[in-house]
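Progress note, project year one: complex with S-adenosylmethionine.
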Amino acid sequence: MNENHAKLCPSPEWAAWLQGEVLPALTAGGVDLGREMLEVGPGPGAATDWLRHRVSRLVALEADEAAAATLTGKLAGTNVEVVSGDATAMDFPDGSFDSAGSFTMLHHVPTAALQNQLLAEVLRVLRPGGVLIGSDSLGSDGLHHFHVDDTYNPVEPATLLTRLQTLGFGKITVTVDHAVLFAAYKPDPDAKCED
Ligand SMILES: C[S@@+](CC[C@H](N)C(=O)[O-])C[C@H]1O[C@@H](n2cnc3c(N)ncnc32)[C@H](O)[C@@H]1O
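Model obtained:
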């Protein structure tokens, strides 16, 4: 993360945007996060701090060791377990989580292939019927400049639905407004068909 992120991501304004706008929108309409949730790329934890009140156990998987150590200290004694590691190659067994979250982090994954690998890993570690909720910033010149000397690989919203579908997600919603928001479910072969 560059200096711009070091200022923005831990700020109260960023937490207010994620917690007041993005996360309520993503969980509106009866999205069930279940008991055990995985968050990939928590950074300073703006989303983590909101999500942890809505599940019994939250595992936050962070690639940056320093960020993981800081978040571990911040959330010590809570229901959050911070794990240092790469979400494109997770150690968790298949079907470990009821839900997963990815916020403002996919554009920090350097290639589309690695983004797909990360999303495929999320699908693998979700239980059947589990849901991935996510958000990311829309690509723009301003966002490009914000990422000077940093990874910048924004997700193209128009292709996201197809990518998620190709990876094997079932019911998928992609919404584009000030950011791209998405929810995608892992198919449950035992679920009753309501069609
Ligand atoms: C811009 S920050 C977003 C932090 C937080 N999700 C938020 O929205 O405030 C992106 C975070 O994703 C992490 N990250 C990037 N690639 C990752 C990967 N492959 N596995 C786990 N974390 C990753 C970065 O280290 C960074 O902390």
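The longest strand covers residues 126-137.
The chain has a mean pLDDT of 93.
No further modelling is planned for this target in the current period.
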